[in-house]
Structures are given as C-alpha cells and as structure tokens.
Design brief:
The protein is α/β, with parallel strands linked by helices and about 270 residues long. It is built from twelve helices and five strands.
C-alpha cells in the first residue's frame, strides 16, 4: 500500500484527525464529507477533498500528501484546484493543505503562488516537526507513526494502542483507530503477516473481547446506514433497501427524513 493511500484511508475513516492537524476543532469533521473528485474532460483526479455540507459557509479543503520530491507538485495542485473551481463554481471559498514527511521533500518552488502561502490559504505541514508523539492527540500521533523509523515504531505503536484503549470511550472510534494502527504496522513491516503483527502488539487478544466485537458490529451497521442514500439515488424503494441491507423500514425512513431524500414508493 502506498503511503499516501494510508493517509487518504485515515482521513476517510477518521476525518477529525485532519481538522486536528490544521489546528481546528475535530468536531468540524461532522460538517464535511471526504472524497476524491474528477476534473471533467481531463485525466486529472484530486484524491483528497473535504467538501462541506450544503448550506454551510465552511471552506472546501484540498489535500495533497507528498512523500517523494516532485518539482511539478505545486503547478499540478493549483491547476487541479482552478479547473475544479471553473467547472463547479462552488459557492464556498477554498483552502489547501500539503503534507510532507519533512522539509527536504518540499521543492518550495512557489514563486508563482507566493500570495496563497503568505495568506495561509495554502498551508504546508511537515510531519517530523509536529512534536513528540506522547504530547500529541491520538489522531496526530497515529499520523506520526507512519514516518517513525522501524526501531522507534514498535514502541510508539504499543504506546498508541495503550492510549487508544484508555483515552477513547467510543467503542466504534476505538476500533477505527486500532485498525488504522494495524494497517500502518503492516505497511511498515512487510515481512510480517497480519497474524504475527496482531500477536506482537496484543491485537489478537483484543479482537476476541466483547468490547471489540460490539464495536465491529457497530461499524458494520454504520456502513449499512451510510449506503442508504446511494441506493435511493439508484432508484430502489425503501422496502427494497430494507430487505437488501437487513434494516428496518423505520431506520430507512429516519435517514430519508434526515437528508431530505426523495424516494420511490410502492
């Protein structure tokens, strides 16, 4: 798995980490949807975009994760942003965040875009300058695990797992963070299989606990609920969706009312 893929998965599953990273309230994540967008009639695809919910004035956040030096990165980033704006004409203003592991990767070729950086409309974050993991929120400390060297990553991972169990009350959120940590460890130790990693970090025992199993069930139910709007868009009735997802009609109706979705009725 590529490093940037881990980041995009992390922000997809736990978007609050992104807002912590840019020194905003993690609760803002509830007002956004993280996705990728195609730039029409081009071969361009913006992999990381936080789109604000409708009827809000929050900015669109374009995200770029870069772990290899690329002299064209800023030219490409601004081309994608301005093409997106031209094609979609969003009412919300925009901001961008570029994430590097360290300064040496950043070409800093911004002479054509200096004003955007001076105004902080575009922000650059160097992960190795975020501070010690023990003093960081769990989400940001998890990001730091990605760039930790192998000698330190084992200790950091164990500390993170302990903190996750102690500091996160929500079963579902705890399970999400632990799964992300496990994914990072699999990426960092490619010669070890999943079972070996689970045994090394005590995750195999954790997964057998009632707490973890309940969190897993909660996550599966949430995935079903999240699928409802898309199935409605495809033209399925509430009854069909309830049968496919094994949900009650009351649950389907509640989601429809919350999102003001038009549905077909039998």
């Amino acid at each position: 798995m590529k490093t940037d893929s881990i980041f995009y998965r992390l922000f997809q599953e736990i978007p609050s980490i992104f807002f912590e990273l840019i020194a905003n309230s993690p609760q803002l994540a509830e007002l956004y949807q993280f996705s990728s967008v195609e730039v029409k009639q081009t071969a361009l695809r913006i992999d990381g975009v936080f789109l604000p919910n409708q009827n809000t004035d929050n900015p669109i956040y374009f995200l770029e994760v870069q772990f290899q030096s690329d002299k064209d990165l800023y030219h490409r980033l601004f081309s994608e942003i301005f093409l997106y704006i031209r094609q979609n004409n969003p009412k919300n203003h925009w901001s961008a965040v570029v994430i590097y592991p360290n300064r040496s990767i950043d070409t800093q070729d911004i002479k054509h875009y200096q004003e955007f950086f001076t105004s902080q409309r575009v922000r650059v974050i160097y992960l190795d300058e975020l501070g010690e993991t023990t003093s960081l929120p769990i989400g940001i400390a998890t990001i730091k695990l990605i760039i930790a060297n192998p000698d330190n990553s084992i200790t950091q991972a164990r500390e993170l797992i302990t903190r996750t169990k102690q500091e996160i009350d929500s079963q579902f959120q705890q399970q999400q963070v632990l799964q992300i940590i496990e994914t990072i460890l699999i990426y960092k130790f490619p010669r070890m299989n999943r079972e070996e990693i689970e045994a090394m970090f005590g995750l195999s025992e954790l997964k057998q606990t009632r707490f973890y199993q309940e969190a897993k069930e909660e996550g599966e139910r949430k995935a079903k609920l999240d699928a409802v709007p898309g199935l409605i868009t495809l033209g399925l009735t509430r009854e069909q969706i309830a049968q496919v997802l094994n949900l009650s009609l009351e649950e389907i109706s509640e989601i429809v009312q919350q999102q003001n979705i038009n549905t077909k009725e039998k």
